[in-house]
Design a protein that fits this description.
With about 300 residues, the protein is an alpha/beta fold. The chain is built from nine helices and 14 strands. It has one domain: Rossmann fold, CATH 3.40.50. The protein is globular.
């Protein structure tokens, strides 16, 4: 009997060890090009920085890869939701969880998506498909990774994003040329979202090159429903409907400002002109969370 308990204990310890060992940390180099001028010129490997990401391997080396890209509120606020989706997807998928410094802006975070995929491939893996699941700004960057010129510069023929699931993406930064790869895109929008207003995304879908995107709108939802904590109405700062457009040279333009001499000027200018305090609904709404997460996982699984 004693030998039996010893064997059971050894088995439990072995399972726990393997579970811990399956979660790795990958370190890789990424870059912060500022706006999209260097990206479009193919000279984006400037201002390097070290990035670290948690990585979970699938059963097979050529299994699809899912890149989880958090919003600007901090990766820790999305841990629970991303782990939930990861568990539902299971070990048939490689999964990498990005974490960004607050000093890295939209362009650098988009570069990091592609650099993370390269880091996974350096592990000797060759994912058959590449998916991005992102929220808020992270969803916007996922969509940007399918922009034709951005994708060609950052990924070439080597890396192409096959599908993006974007939860309440910030669609206020768009491309003037409106040319996107025909990747599968699913967007979840909140009808009462004033952080990332839904009309900015539906405009992209209707008129701005993303007509192939599938959109699910929860009319009574606000923002950040993947985050832990109940949804609540509060008075917070937002850019409301102000927009930035990226021209053919990669320069950002918005509300009378541009990024020719760096993104600081345009961000400060828009902050003065556009940021207002408004009543908004943010946080976890259980029904919306359950429906959107279930559909997101089913959507990814349906793509062969």
């Amino acid at each position: 009997m004693r030998k039996f308990y010893v064997r059971v204990l050894a088995l439990i310890l072995c399972i726990q060890f393997n579970s811990i060992a399956s979660a790795e940390v990958i370190e890789f180099e990424s870059y912060e090009p500022g706006d999209h001028q260097k990206i479009f010129a193919g000279d984006w490997k400037i201002n390097p920085f070290k990035s670290r990401a948690k990585f979970e391997r699938a059963e097979n080396s050529n299994s699809p890869l899912v890149v989880f890209n958090p919003g600007w509120g901090g990766s820790d606020k999305y841990d629970a939701a991303f782990k939930d989706m990861s568990k539902r997807l299971g070990n048939s998928y490689h999964r990498i969880f990005l974490s960004h410094s607050d000093e890295i802006d939209l362009a650098g975070r988009t570069v990091t998506i592609f650099q993370a995929v390269r880091a996974v491939r350096r592990e000797g893996l060759n994912p058959s498909k590449i998916f991005v699941i992102g929220a808020s700004g992270g969803g916007q960057e996922g969509i940007h990774s399918t922009h034709l010129k951005t994708s060609q510069s950052l990924g070439g023929d080597e890396i192409k994003i096959d599908a993006v699931v974007a939860f309440y993406p910030s669609c206020r930064v768009s491309f003037k040329d409106n040319k996107f790869r025909n990747a599968s895109i699913l967007m979840f929008l909140g009808g009462k979202d004033k952080v990332a207003p839904a009309p900015l995304c539906t405009e992209l879908s209707d008129n701005r090159g993303l007509k192939h995107a599938e959109i699910v709108t929860f009319e009574d939802a606000g923002h950040s429903w993947l985050m832990t904590g109940s949804a609540k109405n509060s008075r917070q700062r937002t850019w409301e409907d102000c927009k930035i457009e990226i021209n053919e040279s990669g320069v950002w333009y918005g509300e009378g400002y541009d990024s020719t001499d760096g993104i600081g000027k345009i961000l400060r200018g828009m902050g003065k002109k556009c940021r207002n305090k408004v009543n908004m609904k943010t946080g976890r709404e259980k029904q919306v969370y359950d429906q959107s997460v279930s559909k997101a996982v089913s959507y990814i699984k349906s793509i062969q």
